[in-house]
Structure formats: C-alpha cells, structure tokens
Design goal:
This protein is elongated. Strands 2-1-6-5-4-3 form a 6-stranded antiparallel sheet. Strands 8-7-12-11-10-9 form a 6-stranded antiparallel sheet. It has 20 helices and 24 strands. The protein has 6 domains: 1-67; 68-180, Beta-Lactamase (2-Layer Sandwich), CATH 3.30.450; 198-304, 2-Layer Sandwich (Beta-Lactamase), CATH 3.30.450.20; 310-437, Beta-Lactamase (2-Layer Sandwich); 443-505; 515-706, Heat Shock Protein 90 (2-Layer Sandwich). By secondary structure, it is of the alpha+beta class.
C-alpha cells in the first residue's frame, strides 16, 4: 500500500510538477501572445497612420491636379472618366464622372493644325487606350459651346502584370498663343511685304558677307545684270563706285565694308556705274550686333536720287527763269528771305507801289535787306506777319484779302498772296508776296451793294404804291357787292359812276407802275426799242402841254408853253417823248402848291434841241441833286409829300433820253424851284419806222396813265 501511496504520491507530485510546468509554459505563451498583440496594434497604428498620410497625399495630389492650369483627365481602361479637373471640364463638352470617352466626344469635332478633321480613333486619348503614347499634339476643337486650340498629351498606365489600368490625358489651351503666333506671322508677312514694296532699296547681309534679304527695289536697282545675288562682292566686281567729288571708291571703303567694320552712316552720296546704267544714290548703313556684341547683320538702305538730282537741276533752272520772269511780271512781287524775312528782291511793279509809300526811294537796291514794315507804312503790318508765319509753319499758301490802303488820298484795295518757296530739301527758302490790285472789283461790289439796297427800298415803295390803288379797287368792289345784296343799285347809280371813275383812275396808276417796271427791265436787258421817225418836236411837246392844261388848272397851277422856234424836225419816238414830258410835268405838279407856275420850253440849239420843264415849287436840296436820276431812289421819303411815287420815273426818263442819244440834267434851289432839261440831238433818220402798233393806247389814255399819280 505504501508503495501504492508512494506511487500515488509520486504521481501527484509529478502531476503537480507537470501542472506547474504547463502553467509556466502557458504563462510564457500568454506573454508572447500579448507581445505579439502589442506589435500588431503598433503595426495597425502605423498602417492607419500611413493610410492617413497616403490619403492626405492623395487629397493634396487631387487638389494639385484640380488646380492645375492645364486640363487633366483620368479614364479607366474602358474609357470611362475617373477624374476630370476643372480646366479639363472647361475644355471638354461632356466631362462628368463615368461618362465614356466616346460619348464625351460625340458632339465634338477635332481638327489638326492643317485643318483636316481628326477621326475618333486617332484622338490622342483614344490612342492611349490602345497603348500608344502621344506628346504635345496640337489640335483645334469645336463643340456646341466652344472653339479652341489645344495641345494634348496622352499616356497609358500599366499594372505590375503589364495590363493597362487607366489612361491620363493633359490638355493645354493654346488659343491665345496660336492667335498671337498667327498675328505675328501676319505682321511678319506684312513687314516683308512692306520691305519688298518700299520705294527705297533694302539689302541685309550677314557676317559672312552673304545677303539674307534683298527687296524688289534693290533687285531692280543693283542686281538686274548680276548672275548671283548672294555674294556682296559680286556687285562690286560688276560696278564702279565714285564719291561726290568724282573719286573712285575702293572695295575696302565700300558701304558694306564700312558697315561690317561697325560704322553707321546716313545719306552717303555715291555714283554707281554698272554695265547697263549709271545711278546717283544716297546710301545709309547700320550694323546690328548680337547679345555678345559681335557683328550679326548689316543693313544698307539706298535711295535712287538720279531723277531727284535731275529735277533739282531743272528746279534750279526754273528758279533762275522765275527770277527773270518776276522782274518783267505785271504783278507786284516782293521776295523775302527765310527765316529773317528781309527783302531779297522786288520787281519793277512792286517798286512802283513802294514808291507811293516811300517817295524818297530811288532804286531797288535801296530796298533790299529792308523788312516789310520799312516798306509799307500801314497799321496792318501785324496781319502781314501773321500770314507769313502761318505760311512758314504750314508750308502752305496764305491769303490776305480786300485790305484797304490810302495812297495819295485815294482808297485802294489789295489782295496779298504769301507763297512759300521750297528748296530741294523741303525747307522754305523764300516767301513770295504777290500784290493784286482789286480796287475796281471792290468798288464795283460797293456799287452793287448800294444798288441792291436801293432796289430793296424800291420794292418797299412799289409794294406801297401797288397796295394803295388795290385797296381802293377792293373797297369799291365790296361797296358794289353791298349795293347788289341790298338791291339799291338804281338808288346808288350816281355814286357808282363816281366809284367806277375811281377804279379806272387806280387802274391807270397800277398800269403806270407796271409799265415803268417792265420798261426798266427791258432797258437793262437791251430789249427796249425805239420807233424812230422824223417829227416836229415843237408841235409834239406843245400838244402834250395843251392836253394837261385842264388838269393843272384843276390843281390851281398855271402851265405855260414857250419856244424860240416854230418848227424843228428831229428823229424821235413820239410815244417815248410823250412819256418823258408827261413824267417831268407830273413830277413838277407833285412838288408844286396852288398858285405855282410850270413852264415848258423848247429851244433850238442848232445841233440839238433842249426841252425843259421848270417849276417854282419846293425845289431839291443840293446834296440830293447827284442821286435824283438814280434807279429806285426817292429824294423825298417824308409822308408830307403831295402825292406818292415809286422813285423810278426820273430813272426811266433818263434811260429813254439816253436811248435817243441825248442827256438830261437838273438845276434846282431848295425853296425856289427846279428845272429839268432834256437835250436831244437834232439829227434825222433816212428810213423811218412807221410800223403801227395796235396795242398803243390813245393819247388821252396815255395822259391818264402817265399822270395817274397826280390826279385827285
């Protein structure tokens, strides 16, 4: 039993020891597991931190891609968009996530830079799906909302197994760049066209003495007979160059050689003798250097001056001819130097004018080197200088018109022309002053203005003279109408006869006014004709006087006819003589008062006959005698005149008298009376004009018309 217990005890001990051992082992394992778990936790933490860091990097990368100035597009290997940044969205018509590349380009047309349309399968992004890489492909894109030029690069992205997982396309909007480059290209072409067609010769050569540009003028001027236009020396072997002194220029001092040495010069005048022509040329040369200061290009600008020098010589000859011509010119000419404005020379005509201002000047030599204020003593000298300086500044002709001067107490008017004379270089060498006498023209204009003014006054008078009889006639017509409406015509018969006489009298007045106006117009136009026949002028005038006796008696006036001869036959138009005498008698009646006397006389003066009408009425003031026969002029404009008139009667009388080859004049003393005298030639005509005019009125009617403005 003891043995059994010992065995059992031994077993228990062993079991206890085993348990302890196992427990120790378990504890050890647990400790290891705990350590491993701690490591796993630390590893997970590190993984989380790494994931966070990667995620942050991804966000940063996405933000960077999103904010790139270039468009960036990611698509999977099926062509579906994974990511499209804002710039790409601006450029791609449909750019939502998940949209297929084919759908995105459905309404879009793509062209290469030549203008040929690019098929869908050749679009760089599509080519990337096939594994092709495209770099910096320039395209033109047109879709419904935009047109633009772009530069695109596309590439495929592979996994570890070499399979395409996605593609990346980068877009760059180059619209402005393309437009700018095209504009630069256009400007370049324009510049080349300008250089090609400029009238001056332009030649540009490099540091190896070879031409890089020769324009059309240069080719025509220098290279028409050369075999090569590349080598500078080719031209020098074909031509000889001479300076302005006629000395030959050796090749070492030729314009191109001087430019290559770094010399810059302007307008070097040379003579070029080539096999087929000789030219006089102005050459300018300019060297151009690179950034290192080394000679890079040379520019020669040449201007063919051959024709210019010929023109200059011709101008010089013409100028000398002008000098000779000016001296014999009928127009006064003064030549002033520029800019000091002293007298260079004057011609004889101008010298004669200057002598009017400076009588002491004896010769043209004394006038030279004077200034114009020393020549013309006038307050208008400031106007002279103003025109001169304007002519100098603008290089244009200036004018000073209608300037009045007092020469020897007489008014004269001049137009002055200030003409700049240009020399060959375009600068003003002299100022020519041309003086044109327009005195007669100005005075004629004054006379015309005066006549227009008188004509205006005449129109006022005529309107009044027409209105007066018209008012009377109109009033009488109204009165007759009233009588008709009231049925009192028979009762008013006596009054109506009186009114009819009034209408008739005022009709005569209108007839006289119209006749005078028409006859004056005919006289001015040269259509007024006389029917001349040989008549006893004494008898003609006496009959006229006798026919107005009743009228003058009714006015309380005494009219007397007197003559120193009983018969005097002369050539005259009796109707026109009647108008003359009646007009003068009418004028005398107007300005005479009751009890005054009118005397009509006919006097034989052998070679001529005088017909005079004298009255002792109010007379005419001496200051008005000169204008008494002026057309449209009235001496008395007061409202106190006995009767009215148009102011054309005496003017018409004078014109008819002058058509007869006679004269008329007036003698008058204010308050005493006036005397009008008509002097007619006593000549006769061989062939009398006996044509009868059926429209001629009877003598009584003529008297009624001519004296209509003095009948009461």
């Amino acid at each position: 039993m003891r043995k059994i217990f010992r065995n059992i005890s031994t077993l228990n001990k062993r079991n206890t020891l085993s348990k302890r051992t196992n427990l120790n082992k378990a504890n050890t394992v647990n400790k290891k597991l705990m350590k491993e778990n701690e490591k796993l936790r630390e590893m997970n933490a590190r993984i989380d931190r790494e994931n966070n860091r990667i995620e942050q990097h991804n966000l940063q990368l996405i933000n960077i891609i999103e904010n790139l100035s270039e468009g960036v597009m990611f698509a999977d290997n099926k062509g579906q968009f994974i990511m499209v940044n804002s710039e790409a969205k601006r450029l791609i018509y449909q750019s939502g996530i998940g949209i297929n590349l084919k759908d995105a380009l459905k309404n879009t047309k793509v062209f290469d830079m030549v203008g040929s349309e690019l098929p869908y399968e050749n679009f760089p992004s599509v080519r990337a799906l096939r594994g092709e890489r495209s770099n910096n492909i320039k395209i033109f894109v047109r879709h419904p909302s935009k047109e633009y030029f772009a530069e695109i690069s596309s590439m495929p992205i592979y996994d570890a197994c070499g399979n395409i997982t996605m593609i990346v396309s980068c877009f760059h909007d180059i619209t402005q760049t393309i437009k700018q480059s095209r504009k630069i290209e256009e400007q370049k072409k324009e510049l080349e066209a300008v250089l090609e067609n400029i009238s001056d010769s332009i030649a540009i050569f490099d540091n190896k003495e070879r031409y890089t540009l020769i324009n059309k003028t240069s080719r025509e001027m220098f290279f028409s007979s050369y075999n090569s236009m590349d080598d500078i020396n080719e031209g020098y072997r074909q031509s000889d160059f001479y300076d302005i002194n006629g000395d030959k220029i050796d090749p070492g001092n030729s314009p191109s050689s001087r430019v290559m040495r770094g010399e810059e010069f302007k307008n070097m005048r040379i003579l070029v003798k080539s096999p087929h022509k000789t030219l006089q040329v102005d050459v300018s040369g300019t060297p151009i250097y690179d950034d290192e200061g080394k000679f890079s290009l040379g520019v020669l600008c040449s201007k063919d001056m051959t024709e210019y020098f010929k023109h200059e010589e011709a101008t010089k000859n013409r100028y000398e001819f002008l000098n000779r011509m000016v001296n014999t010119f009928d127009l006064p000419v003064v030549r002033l130097s520029c800019p000091d404005l002293s007298v260079v020379d004057i011609n004889k005509k101008a010298f004669n004018i200057i002598k009017l201002f400076r009588p002491n000047v004896e010769s043209i030599k004394e006038i030279k080197k004077n200034r114009i204020e020393d020549l013309f003593k006038t307050s208008q000298i400031g106007d002279y200088y103003k025109c001169i300086y304007e002519a100098i500044n603008e290089k244009k002709t200036k004018y000073l018109n209608k300037k009045k001067y007092i020469v020897n107490g007489n008014e004269v008017y001049w137009n002055l022309i200030f003409e700049p004379m240009l020399c060959a270089n375009g600068e003003i060498e002299e100022i020519l002053i041309l003086i044109i006498d327009v005195t007669s023209e100005i005075k004629s204009n004054m006379v015309m203005e005066k006549a227009l003014k008188l004509q205006g006054e005449f129109l006022v008078n005529v309107s009044h003279e027409l209105k007066t009889p018209l008012n009377v006639i109109f009033a009488t017509a109204q009165l007759f109408n009233m009588y008709c409406n009231s049925g009192s015509l028979d009762e008013k018969k006596d009054s109506m006869l009186k009114y009819i006489d009034s209408i008739k009298q005022n009709s005569y007045r209108l007839s006289k006014i119209i006749n005078n106006i028409v006859d004056l117009s005919k006289i001015e136009a040269g259509f007024f004709k006389l029917n001349l026949s040989n008549n006893n002028i004494v008898e003609v005038v006496e009959e006229i006087v006798m026919s107005v006796t009743n009228l003058t008696e009714s006015k309380g006036l005494n009219i007397i006819f007197d003559t120193n001869v009983e018969e005097k036959n002369i050539a005259c138009d009796t109707e026109k003589i009647e108008r003359i005498v009646l007009n003068l008698i009418s004028n005398a009646i107007k300005f005479s008062d009751i009890g005054d006397e009118i005397v009509v006389e006919v006097k034989d003066k052998n070679e001529f006959v005088e017909i005079s009408v004298r009255d002792n009425g109010i007379g005419i003031e001496e200051k008005n005698l000169d204008m008494i026969f002026d057309r449209f002029k009235q001496v008395d404009k007061s409202l106190s005149r006995n009767t009215e008139g148009t102011g054309i009667g005496l003017s018409l009388v004078k014109s008819i008298v002058e058509l007869h080859g006679g004269t008329i004049y007036v003698e008058s003393e204010y308050g005493i009376g006036s005397k009008f005298t008509v002097r007619l030639s006593a000549r006769r005509v061989l062939h009398e004009n006996m044509i009868y005019n059926s429209n001629v009125r009877s003598k009584d009617e003529n008297i009624q018309v001519e004296l209509s403005d003095v009948y009461s």
